[in-house]
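User: structure tokens for this one?
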Amino acid sequence: MRLLSTLVFAAAVLAAPAAFAEDVPLTAEQTAVLDKEFNAAVEAARASLPVFWRQLAENPGGPNDYGLKVTFHNAQGQTEEVWLQDIKRDGKRIVGRLNYDPQTLPQLRRTDIVPIREADIVDWSFKWGRKRYGEFTTRVLAKAHPADSAKTLAALADNPIPADAAK
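Assistant:
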């Protein structure tokens, strides 16, 4: 289940360096619902990726204005989804800078510049004005820990896609 590996890293996804202060185990039913919502969020993010690429091309901004959440695999066959910033795209070549130290990828460190396969992108984010757009998976994970996510949610636009952005 993608959600189980993602929940381990939810603190980093929600821009908090430590685990949630009030981690409460989810029931199997809650996990199943959250997993379904998370997978739908990944599909929505992937379907709307052209919005991200268009925004990046038209308004490159600073290194922290754009982010991609990418799946990486470790030697044990496990996956970890990691946010990257300072995204650069030249044709099919995409690279980004790790936003934090991954927990199960000892070969990777915060600030490493790594190649990104578009097929491994599970979410995107960009800052426009004072709000962040995208972050489909962040919105789902925040539901599991609303008290710990209030600041993160306040930084997000109401809609993950700007109203005037054509898909």
